[in-house]
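Last lecture ended with a question: if I hand you only a sequence, what can you say about the shape of the protein? Today we answer it with a concrete record. The protein is DNA-directed DNA polymerase. Below, first the input exactly as provided, then the predicted structure, then a couple of comments.
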Amino acid sequence: MSVECLKNSSLKGKPLLVGGSGDRGVVAACSYEARKFGIHSAMPIKLARRLCPEAIIIRGDMESYSKYSRLVTEIMQDNVPLFEKASIDEFYIDLSGMDKFFGCSLFARELKKRVIKESGLPVSYALASNKLISKVATNEVKPNGQLEIAFGGEKSFLAPLSVSKLPGIGKETAYKLIRRGVETIKTLSDIPMEMLGTMLGKNGIDLWRKANGLDESPIIPYREQKSISTEQTFETDTINLGFLHAQLVRMTESIGFELRRQDKLTGCVTVKLRYSNFDTVVKQKTIDYTNADHILLATAQEVFDKLYDRRMLIRLLGIRFTRLVPGNYQIKLYEDTQEIIRLYQSIDSIKRRYGEQLLVRAVGVKGGYGK
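The predicted structure:
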């Protein structure tokens, strides 16, 4: 929403929806003004229109969103010694020891000013003793706010908030808790851990720790070069394009599933070829952050077609996804219908339960092993 308002200032202060234009589309993102009407991401566009008839619907521009995400990441790399990129627009920063030199509060304020100056985007942040409190507090001061929760004040900060604001509590869990009279995080924190464990299983114990402000999860240093890849050396060198295409589809689909299983998006697709004379060539394409198979498959095929120009026998084919960031494909399919999104979810659910080879595209097995 911030990028859209930056591109068109007349949109500021208005209820905005990013998503498909048809009634079968879904909301990919929405402005704070739209959220006041009860609209949220993944909601059917048709329902969102009923809740807020005056909402402005935008198709979305992942190219711009990716560009600004990379810009802010570069600012972090230039100014912060240790940070984690938790999503396309969310960062955790480790300021341990900073209070002895520059001061955490002053450093955070100066960093915010720099991001706003260089990107034009609003920035919300919260200084806290752990990632959990920082995330919850940041959500409380959006948009463009800032807050500091002193060490020891974690429980008192969380206490009056609704249980629905605690990460890890979805609609069903919130309903179960509220039905039992547990409406605030303080009430949740007062329930014995064993009782919550009995009520909600392992998730109950985790929620008890969160409700008490406990979180030891570390900052995971951002590494741009992390990748997910696979390659195959063929038993016999081949020039059979039908076979090569089938293998490319199978391999892309396999690591695409792994990408989604890890809740990550890729910003770059690389294809690798090794010819029969052992010459190895690679080509890559930078793309908007995604983990949707139909985009990854089309990109992989495009890169392969540009790379394979010798018409020589091939002995090895590989594909790699890099520039990985955390994210979920559901909010990226701007023009897809609810049915398509549910299809993706169902396919991945079956693969997780029974193995990824149980469901594959027919083209991935077409062509046999002819050479």
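Comments.
1. The two ends are 51 Å apart (CA to CA).
2. DSSP finds 14 helices and twelve strands in the chain.
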